[in-house]
Design goal:
11 strands, transmembrane, 7-stranded antiparallel sheet, two-stranded antiparallel ribbon, DUF4245 domain-containing protein, membrane, Phosphorylase Kinase, domain 1, transmembrane helix, alpha+beta, 244 residues
Length: 244
Amino acid sequence: MTDKTPSSAPDAEAVQTEADAPADRPETDAPQARPEPAAHAGRPVVEVSPGVYKRLTTGLGGFTMAMGACLLIVLAIYVVTPRSNEEVLPTVDYGSQLWVMRNDAPFTVYAPEGLPATWRPNSSRVHGLDADGKDPVAWHLGFVTPSDEYAALEQSNEKASQYVPRMANSSRPVGTQQVNGVAWTKYHRKDKKANSLARTLPDGASIVVTGTASYTELAVLAGSLKEQAKTGGPTPPVTVTPAS
């Protein structure tokens, strides 16, 4: 007799299906957790807008802004810094050169005497005294005139036909000018704005007063020249002071 009672054992296929199912299947509808940002150890986090971030991280733009700021600072300093366009020339004491020329030059030396204080000596040079007579001796003495022009006294025992044209910047006389009853030969060099008065002494030495000064001022310098006698004695001190 056949037993038709259903078996209480689970169906084999159903058991197999449940066994094949994953044990830890996540719920598909569960919300995903957002990862926490990494904590900065003790440093504050500054959030900026995308536009500001771009300007800060763009190399050329940041460099240009920095350079512009520096240039503005330099310009401001330049504007507020006081400046003077007036050129300050030194005033020299030529006493030492005068003493040496007066006592050691192989010719009669002339030097200015009684010039107003507005005539400021700014250069003095002696050449040839250490050559044991092998080279000509020369003395240059430069002045700033009252009209802020330049005038120089040049004298030497060099051959006059060579020395005078070189000092006057011209070999063509343009006339003569009387200074204290003495005739001086006039020279002019237009392209250099050079005026000159020259004369040759009986001992062969030459004197030239030359510069950008007018003939009137050159005549003042020429008229102040006096013959210097040999004096001997100690060399006077040399001082240099700034022009006032």
